[in-house]
Amino acid sequence: MKGLYCRAGVNDAEPKFVIQETSLPEVLGSHQVRVQVKACGLSPLDLKLLSDVGIQKDLIPVGREVAGVVLQVGPKVSFFQPEDEVVGILPLDSPCSGLCDVIDIDEHYLVQKPEKLSSVCVAAALRDGLSAYSALHTHARMAAGHTLLVMDGASSFGLMCIQLACYHGVKVLTTSHSQQKHTFLEQLRPSVARVIPVYNGSSDLLPLILEETGGLGVDIVIDSGVRLQEEEESEEMKLLPHKHDIISVLGVGGHWVTSHQDLQLDPPDCRLLFLKSASVSFLNPEIWTASSAQQGRYLHILKDIVEKMSAGVLRPQPEEAYPLYEATVAMETVQRHQKKKAVVQL
After folding, report:
1. Which 3-state string (H, E, C) describes the chain?
2. Residues of the chain with pLDDT under 50
3. Residue 37 has what pLDDT?
4. pTM for the whole thing?
5. Are 184 and 160 in contact (CB under 8 A)?
6. For 98, phi and psi rounded to 5 degrees?
7. CB hemisphere CA count around 147 (13 angstroms)
8. Would you state the pLDDT for residue 288?
9. What's the confidence (pLDDT) of residue 334?
10. Which of 118, 119, 103, 124 is nearest to 4 (CA)?
């Protein structure tokens, strides 16, 4: 049986992705489930995060968002039976690559997959759904009547945030990074209140947000990265909002949920946040599988996400599925951030 693994580069060299032979133990653990994988989602590997939490291996398993069918269950498994269709995210320290034909996983990381939901769709979108749920419910305490600003709403994560917020009666504003994405966002149903273009070099974010909110600012901002300096050379960085712009558009008591790991706030930024009694939260979706303290809540979230996908509340953009023999190339593309997400069909 073969799986995809990452050999970390030395001295900032690019990591290498390799196919390696692997095997499973003959006997399942008490609470383990043996799953035949049907589809696996690929996301960028955060090698620094793995190092920070003490996971350092020569070969790091790749591919963690999986959908498949239960083949066998351990003696104390109570949630699943053979032939159940399941979906889940492998924990950070899992020895299995999600691109193996068959994997062993603890039952507490899996939920039932609704019958009419495709394996490819759920494997591609599960991580973004979890991130959106964590940002809006766990961090921002979203409620009906709130106003939300989603940066880069046409991204897979941004789209999940918009759809989840609209479902809960939140007024949604978003930004677009190209003319094509702008048109796509304007045609979304349920519709967003306003799409603000940021690709034409304008810096109208603050006046437009204040106009849309009657001068009050928004209750929640969810970013997809921020600029720490005013002058950025790359075109991609110029599309990101400056940290001061985000703080400026926040209303009193607002919540800023950021994906930026190395955020630096200067004393004037902190002063402005203090005056607004606003808060900053860091979004790390890995935290759910890094600790068992909130395992029940995590499973509830996963179950709710797949049910909302099945019901059409969350409608992720379809991802083209790669065959297994193209998995290495697909993962290299994702790791270089040339593509944000890939899914492999086994």
Report:
1. CEEEEEECCCCCCCCEEEEEECCCCCCCCCCEEEEEEEEEEECCCCHHHHHHCCCCCCCEECCCEEEEEEEEECCCCCCCCCCCEEEEECCCCCCCCCCCCEEEEEHHHEEECCCCCCHHHHHHHHHHHHHHHHHHHHHCCCCCCCEEEECCCCCHHHHHHHHHHHHCCCEEEEEECCHHHHHHHHCCCCCCCEEEECCCCCCCHHHHHHHHCCCCCEEEEECCCCECCCCCCCHHHHCCCEHHHHHHHEEEEEEEEECCCCCCCCHHHHHHHHHHCCEEEECCCCHHHHCCCCHHHHHHHHHHHHHHHHHCCCCCCCCCEEEHHHHHHHHHHHHCCCCCCEEEEC
2. none
3. 92
4. 0.90
5. no
6. -65, -10
7. 20
8. 85
9. 87
10. 103
Supply the pLDDT for residue 3: 86
Structure tokens at 58: 């020569």
Residue 11 has a pLDDT of 62
Predicted confidence at residue 132, as pLDDT, reads 94
Residue 113: predicted pLDDT: 92
Q: Specify the amino acid at residue 258.
A: T
